[in-house]
Design goal:
The protein has helices at about 5-40, 55-75. By secondary structure, it is mostly helical. It has one domain (about 5-75). α1 (about 5-40) packs antiparallel against α2. It starts with a helix and ends with a helix. About 5% of the residues are buried. The model has no long low-confidence stretch (mean pLDDT about 80).
Length: about 80
């Protein structure tokens, strides 16, 4: 293996790591948008409202909070 091949391989690894990082950041920001705009401001839906439509509102809000926590952890 030549030096040129090693450099190209390391660039590919760096590009793949950067892409994975940016995908996680984008997923987390989309989750924040969904959680803040759709769940809290507009109150259109909750995270688990499709699975249990007549469920307790406290359970729905708690599941939204856990969703926000997971999105925050992904962003960090």
């Amino acid at each position: 293996m030549s030096v040129h091949d090693a450099v190209n391989r390391s660039r590919h690894d760096v590009n793949r790591q950067a892409l994975c990082g940016w995908l996680l950041v984008g997923f987390a920001l989309a989750g924040f948008f969904d959680g803040i705009v759709l769940h809290q401001i507009l109150q259109w839906h909750h995270l688990l409202s499709a699975f249990s439509p007549g469920s307790d509102l406290r359970f729905q809000v708690m599941s939204d909070g856990l969703f926000h926590l997971v999105m925050y952890l992904l962003l960090v």
